[in-house]
Sequence to fold (376 residues):
Amino acid sequence: MSKVIINRNNGTIVLMLIFLASGTFFGIANAQNLDEASNSSNNKSLSLNDLFELVENSIVQVTKTMPPANPYGPDKENSTALGSGFIYNDKGYIVTNNHVVENAEVVDITFINGDRYTANITGTDPFSDLAVIKINENTTGLPKPLIVGNSSALRVGDQVVAIGNPFGLDSSMTTGIVSQIGRLLSIDERGFSIPNAIQTDALINPGNSGGPLLNMKGEVIGVNTAGIFPGGIGLAVPSNTVLRIIPVLMEEKNYTHPWLGVTGNTLTADLAKREKVDRTLKGVIIDNLVRSSPADLAGLNGSNINQYGEKRGGDIVTAVDGKQIFKMEDLISYLELNKAVNENATLSVYRDGEIIDKQVTLKSRPLAPTTNQTQN
Fold:
């Protein structure tokens, strides 16, 4: 039986490769191309060749040097973690993944023509796996920023392109389609997930992380973040999340996400049978509550074990602020996109045969691990 491994794609490998400058120069042509793309981005698709030539100069390799895990061990050499990124604005800011630059203060940036710079970490958000870094040196003459498009306009079947530096192979392009939208992308042991992730069959390998997922107009519609192997499934943070979070990271260094404090599961037919509720009922059944979390303080009920050792689930969330909830992804996505810390949300929950409303005052997500299950 094949084992599925979710690869976070930070490209943590010891590198012994020689990078050759491509000899491509950042001339006026690229600036003109980006201007033309901006003016006509809603009009027509580009060929794969034209798309690559349009954006290649604005995509970078991000290199982070890491000390050896055991400085007294046989391998005392530093290792290098590789990732990708793209120019976000004309002030030298670059977007990448949080896990590409995590625990670093300075990283190296390399453009396709071989030009190298150092960049400081401006802001990071582990919960969206996004980071913004800024080139230290004079940014005059840098390529123009990529255009960030509208990920909400994506449809399953749309053709997309991923460009990055897999395994240190700079400026590699893979193509595919949008396989699905609205995926829930698990982050780490904290139990939180990124909502509305884009699933694609464009190949995303270690080193692609932080690079752009582009539509055929050359617009960034996602940030490549993870791959599932075997299977060839790529996952990207949607561009609308980038547009919401990156400006805040540039100003405030971090981003606060609203937190409910529950783990739960989509109510399936099996769970409905176990809970002895109508199989047509739709919603999210609460499993665990984090102690003193907003959900706990609001009086929501989690699961319990009865006197016969049988597990019974807690409240079933059927709506938030009157918006119907069908699955866990809906709950997480609604709170993330529509609510802020210290705001109230009204949860409609099914309990003991009736629907009741519970008002919850949301808090900021804790950084310390609270559970290994998907939560919000």
Q: What stands out?
A: Residues 269 and 280 are 8 Å apart (CA to CA).
